Amino acid sequence: MWSTTKTSSKPLSYELLAEVGEGCYGKVYKAREVGERQRLLAVKKFNIRGEALQSGIPAFMIREVALLRKMEDFNHPNVVKLLDASAVPVGMGLELSLVLEYIDQDLSTYLSKVPASGLSRDKVMDVMLQLLRGLDFLHTNLVLHRDLKPENILVSNRGEVKIADFGLARIHTFNMALTPGVVTLWYRAPEVLLNSVYMSSVDMWSVGCIFAELFLLRPLFQGHTEVQQLQKIFEVIGLPSEKDWPADTPISYSPSWGPKRSHTKLLPNLEPDENDLLSQCLAFRPSGRISAFKALSHPFFVKHSRFQLNEEWKEEKINRCCSELPESTV
């Protein structure tokens, strides 16, 4: 058995209450801690058996635990907390468990409950502010999430927004080579769809897609194949110039990909500041995409006094660690 519980702490004891989700690799349960605290927990359980066990503990599991442990001491309010992790032999297999703080719902579920009139502008700002703070924290610590989507963003009943599910996350290295399956199709950046190298700006493309979805209450780009997804993107942002087409992509540039037009006003019902932030998130060239850090100072937030960054956060950014990503790659 192995465990990542800190040596000063005992392994968490809990009772499973209900299954709340299921994926390709296992199940997620709502649980309650046994003892005085009685707090609710989310428990991910993975059963590794047969041939899969011969390859050892899956890389995605090790990656998620390692990255959450790396960020644990910072205790960031907009990143889900890992409380315990263990691997226990069960019969001829291995049961892997991740114990996380319990959050009531994900952003997809939250949006499904929003009335047809939509979210208020203030609520959109609140969600975006928290999402960007969490992402800026990750990028400052050289972590690329690589799978941001509403299902991986949690929203508590108190309105807290937390980034979750780090199974595809990676420590940043400059100009990362493509990994198949990075980012769910509807939130996938053009450079990933074009099999080009990518940087942390892939996460900001996903943020742009989520930003639009907060207004539309539906995904902005809903392609069924990678080619169709590119076409959906170019229908909205316009076809980029040939000089902006990635040099390392195996996919050739063609004027037939989509219409050429300005993309400064992507959604007709948005205010100028909203469209400007959206267009900077959805810039075709990764180097032209706004960073999470810069987005937090965008007029979309700054002009509304109740959303201005507090002094504590400003001080944190002034004293940010020297390991921050270069500006052009954040």
From TrEMBL:
SUPFAM superfamilies (alphabetical): Protein kinase-like (PK-like)
Protein kinase domain mapped to chain residues: 14-301
Pfam families, sorted: Pkinase (PF00069)
Residues engaged in binding ATP: K45
Keyword Transferase: yes
Keywords: ATP-binding, Kinase, Nucleotide-binding, Serine/threonine-protein kinase, Transferase
InterPro entries the record matches: CDK, Kinase-like_dom_sf, Prot_kinase_dom, Protein_kinase_ATP_BS, Ser/Thr_kinase_AS
Reactions performed catalytically: L-seryl-[protein] + ATP = O-phospho-L-seryl-[protein] + ADP + H(+); L-threonyl-[protein] + ATP = O-phospho-L-threonyl-[protein] + ADP + H(+)
GO molecular function: ATP binding; cyclin binding; cyclin-dependent protein serine/threonine kinase activity; MAP kinase activity
Entry's Gene Ontology BP terms: G1/S transition of mitotic cell cycle; regulation of G2/M transition of mitotic cell cycle; regulation of gene expression; spermatogenesis
A cellular component term, taken from the record's GO annotations: cytoplasm
Family per similarity comment: Belongs to the protein kinase superfamily. CMGC Ser/Thr protein kinase family. CDC2/CDKX subfamily.
PANTHER family named in the record: CELL DIVISION PROTEIN KINASE (PTHR24056), CYCLIN-DEPENDENT KINASE 21 (PTHR24056:SF164)
Name of this protein: Cyclin-dependent kinase 21
